C-alpha cells in the first residue's frame, strides 16, 4: 500500500507559529541572542565576551576532594593512635 499524506487522519499541512516563536534558525555561535525585526541580533558586549573567554581556574573534582578528606582523616587517626601509646 502506498503512503499518501491526504489519507493521514488529523494531518494538518499548515500550522500557525505562535507570536513568541520563529522558524529562523539561531546563528552559531551565539551568547545572548535576541530576535528582533525578523532576525537574530547578538547582544553580548565585548567585555562580557572577554570575561567568558577568560581561562578558568581548574577546580578539584568531587573524587579529588574525597581523596583529600580521606587522607586528612587518616592522618588524624594516625596521630590519635600514636598519642595514645
Tell me what the structure shows.
This is Phage protein. It comes from Bacillus cereus group sp. MS39. The chain is α+β, with helices and mostly antiparallel strands. The protein has one domain. Helices cover 35% and strands 9% of the residues. It is built from two helices and two strands, in the order ββαα. The chain has helices spanning 46-53, 62-83, and strands at residues 33-36, 39-42. A two-stranded antiparallel sheet has the order 1-2. It is elongated, with a radius of gyration of 30 Å. The termini are far apart.
Write a compact overview of the structure shown:
This is Phage protein. With 85 residues, the protein is of the alpha+beta class. It has helices spanning 46-53, 62-83, and strands at 33-36, 39-42.
What is the mean pLDDT?
86
Number of helices: 2
Query: How far is the first residue's CA from the last residue's CA?
Result: 89 Å
Q: Compute the number of structural domains.
A: 1
Low-confidence stretches: none
Q: SS-based structural class?
A: alpha+beta
Taken in chain order, the helices and strands follow as EEHH
Shape: elongated
Largest sheet: 2 strands, antiparallel
Amino acid at each position: 500500500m502506498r503512503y499518501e499524506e491526504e489519507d493521514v487522519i488529523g494531518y494538518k499541512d499548515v500550522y500557525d507559529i505562535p507570536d513568541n516563536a520563529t522558524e529562523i534558525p539561531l546563528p552559531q555561535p551565539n551568547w545572548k541572542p535576541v530576535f528582533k525585526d525578523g532576525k537574530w541580533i547578538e547582544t553580548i558586549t565585548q567585555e562580557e565576551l572577554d570575561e567568558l573567554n577568560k581561562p578558568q581556574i581548574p577546580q578539584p573534582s568531587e573524587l579529588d576532594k574525597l581523596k583529600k578528606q580521606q587522607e586528612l582523616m587518616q592522618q588524624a587517626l594516625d596521630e590519635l593512635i600514636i598519642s595514645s601509646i
